[in-house]
Amino acid sequence: MRVILAPDKFKGSVSAPEAARFLAEGLRSVDPGLDIVLMPVADGGEGTIDAVTASGFTRVVERVQGPTGESVQADFAVRGTVAVIEMAAASGLAVLHNGTPSPLLASTYGTGQLVKAALDRGCTEIVLGVGGSATTDGGAGMLAALGATFKDSAGRHLPPGGGALATVTNIELGGLDRRLGGVQFTLASDVDNPLLGPDGAAAVFAPQKGASEAHVAHLETALERYFRVMANALGTAAVDAIDAPGSGAAGGTGYAALAVLSAKRRPGIDVVLELTGLADKIGTADLVITGEGSLDEQSLFGKAPMGVATAARAAGIPVVAVCGRTTLTPEVLHGAGFAHCYALTDLNADTEHCMKNAGALLTQIGATIGARLATRGKEEENSYV
């Protein structure tokens, strides 16, 4: 019997590859003969590099500027001429200096440095996963690292950060790295927000990055000015991108990717399923196990477990969810395509205990699933809930 393990990370506890290994340990403790394939996944945000390197990509380490200018170590992944960049590694909340948000000053410059490093390696396809950013600079920092310039009315170069865009009067794109013209960019994002307005980058996402109401108002004004000046510099591409789904992703980095880099937006989990080869391999399995830390209503809209469940259901393969906790009823889970759901909180109601002991609890759940498989055929496994 072949079992594919395709979990996402259990945030704050274990990475996706670790979750897969713990589940595998539990399964093998019951049946060492199981054919177990470890294929951890992600939704395009944090954990994407872990997922693709587990499937054959090579991890590359670079030193780049963090969100507020400090040097940080950031990884990206390469296979042949394809590069996968996880924006959070260079410009994310997790790499903020001392963990302190800086909503007006945080920059995507480091993300642009990772793009340049991919170009230096000869990559002609670049996937930009944009979850978990600490920035609201419209991707201006990323473009600056690639050769664009941003100046105020006095001809001075703007300092980093979205706040400074309130004074931009000139954007020069002629200095952009010419190699960009030969690159196909994919914006891996489940966010469909526009750049501006009540559903835009500043209004919806900046508060999650430490912005006060005054900061949000300032950033909205700054991004609007940025758009108007960009439209003068770029023309119709800048105008077409303003309301395009995903332009508001990662504090407007989606806008820069769509307008300037001619990126195509795709759901993050779809991209990861393709890059890891999981989409093609699911049909070879007898059972697929997926999951994440919290399986809730948000999980039903583009998160990794739902993407895996959808692919498995299309292939006629039963899929089981494993999570730290779930707020979904068995009926909702069944309707989403899950044959069963195992939660760590079923073993211990204390969520703090579950987070600290996630590895051991996942191994225990793996053993439970293994025991169930030993006494049930595929048809029964497909039907239980």
From TrEMBL:
One Pfam family named in its UniProt record: Gly_kinase
UniProt-listed InterPro entries: Glyc_kinase_flavodox-like_fold (IPR018193), Glycerate_kinase (IPR004381), Glycerate_kinase_RE-like (IPR018197), Glycerate_kinase_sf (IPR036129)
Transferase among keywords: yes
UniProt keyword Transferase, yes or no: yes
Keywords: Kinase, Transferase
A GO BP annotation: organic acid phosphorylation
Entry's Gene Ontology molecular function annotations: glycerate kinase activity
Protein family according to the UniProt entry: Belongs to the glycerate kinase type-1 family.
UniProt-recorded name of the protein: Glycerate kinase
